[in-house]
Specification:
2,3-Dihydroxybiphenyl 1,2-Dioxygenase, domain 1, alpha/beta, 2 helices, four-stranded mixed beta sheet, 2 domains, 130 residues
């Protein structure tokens, strides 16, 4: 029997960062997400209604210095997009800012448009049509 959890959606996402200054510059200055929390141990921004917090990385294996979606753990985070023109605008702006990205592609599984990109720690994000 299912528990049937009732929830309005995601409350927050917690990620690890190798460099707070670089992370803040990317999320606030490049992507335009407002920083709403800054302490010695934690910074956070709002991505729509979702809080995304960053703690300092403390790798258990120092050679594992960048994110890969193929390890156990986070694969990627997808933000919803309701306007195809906005999807293309963001893809172009990411390219202009020198941010590694896929350009606008079609998800073969759901036949939806998206653009995938990576933050400075190579954490994978998507801007995905709903």
């Amino acid at each position: 029997m299912a528990i049937q959890v009732k929830t309005p959606g995601i409350h927050h996402i917690a990620l690890r960062s190798s460099d707070f200054a670089r992370t803040k510059a990317f999320y606030q200055d490049t992507l335009g997400f407002p920083m709403v929390l800054e302490t010695h141990d934690l910074i956070g921004c709002m991505v729509g209604p979702v809080f995304v917090g960053f703690k300092k990385a403390s790798p258990q294996h120092p050679e594992d210095t960048t994110f890969t979606p193929f390890n156990i753990g986070l694969d990627h985070i997808a933000m919803a997009c309701e306007d195809e023109a906005e999807l293309h605008r963001v893809a172009d702006a990411l390219q202009a800012a020198g941010v590694e990205n896929t350009g606008v592609k079609t998800d073969p599984a759901l036949q939806k448009l998206y653009v995938a990109f990576k933050d400075p720690d190579r954490i994978a994000w998507e801007f995905y049509m709903v």
